[in-house]
Specification:
Elements (H helix, E strand, L loop, with lengths): L1 E5 L3 E6 L6 E8 L6 E5 L7 E3 L5 E3 L5 E4 L2 E4 L2 H10 L4 E5 L12 H10 L1 E7 L3 E2 L4 E4 L4 E5 L4 E8 L7 E7 L2 H8 L5 E3 H9 L12 E3 L13 H14 L5 E8 L3 H16 L1
Parallel strand pairs: 4-9, 11-18, 14-18, 16-17
Antiparallel strand pairs: 1-10, 2-3, 3-9, 4-5, 6-7, 7-8, 12-13, 13-18, 14-15
């Protein structure tokens, strides 16, 4: 396949999930081999932060990219949408340090990209095809990548609370599958953890409009899928592994989160650089 970029700019405004701050983003077409690059427009020096695994500096409740002392955090939903829509080159101008949360999923970003359209460019895409087994394991959780002719994700979520319990899904990714079965899945929080998160300066922009909240009795809002949690985990994984590049392979995970996902992306990216 040829590399792809947007046909025209696309803009969106909202609040950041963790910062709670108003933010505007504009996604611009970019030349071949640019990759995905975030540009902080609110700073005097417009620092550019390439969205690559080597620039991941934190995975506390979100994936953070940094360049020197400038950062962008909670990039995973937007990166997932770019992955699902097959965009290789894009400059993302952003006037704060966190993209908008939108509705807590990636469907808003996917629609934004679709409305902008895409164009093929005059250079072949350099796909990273997994040709060996990668495994990141912390003894309780793991994520791995194995060779596969395409893109596939198999994810098992294990939650100690009976309301959720064990959730599993396996998807062979196409653009239609991503849009219908993954992109609408929203981020999820346990009600008793919300106050602690906010005390730590996290989740300040979270509401029942952009986060699914549950307690020991049930859900505080209506689910889009019975297994929305594991679908959102897959959404996050696709955003995190996109930091390694346009990857093809079978990703298998049990209880994985941003830390393990990005460690896997870093291992793949390091091999790709050689």
């Amino acid at each position: 396949m040829q590399q792809q970029t947007l046909a025209k700019p696309a803009a969106y405004a909202g609040v950041g999930l963790h910062s709670g701050k108003e933010v505007e983003i504009t996604l611009h077409p970019a030349p071949v081999d640019t990759g995905i690059v975030f540009v902080r427009t609110d700073l005097e020096e417009r620092t550019e932060i390439p969205a690559v695994a080597a620039n991941v500096t934190s995975t506390l409740r979100a994936t953070t990219l940094s360049m020197r002392d400038v950062r962008i955090f909670t990039v995973e939903h937007l990166m997932s949408a770019l992955h699902g829509f097959g965009i290789d080159n894009c400059r993302i101008e952003i006037n704060a340090e966190e993209p908008p949360v939108a509705d807590g999923s990636s469907i808003v970003f996917l629609d934004l990209l679709k409305n902008a359209g895409r164009v093929q460019q005059d250079k072949e895409r350099r796909e990273i095809r997994i040709d060996k087994v990668y495994r990141i394991d912390d003894g309780e959780r793991f994520v791995m990548a194995v060779p596969y002719d395409g893109l596939r994700v198999s994810f098992t979520s294990l939650n100690e609370r009976k309301l959720i319990g064990v959730q599993y899904h396996d998807f062979i990714l196409t653009e239609d599958v991503y849009r219908k079965d993954i992109a609408p899945a929203r981020t999820i929080a346990y009600e008793k953890e919300v106050d602690a998160l906010r005390a730590a300066g996290l989740g300040l922009g979270g509401t029942l409009e952009n986060v699914i909240v549950y307690n020991d009795e049930g859900w505080l809002n209506t689910l889009r899928f019975e297994d929305e949690l594991v679908r959102h985990k897959i959404l996050d994984l696709l955003g995190d592994v996109r930091l390694a590049g346009a990857v093809k392979g079978h990703f298998i995970a049990v209880k994985s989160g941003h830390e393990l996902n990005t460690r896997l992306a870093k291992a793949i990216y390091a091999d790709w650089l050689r």
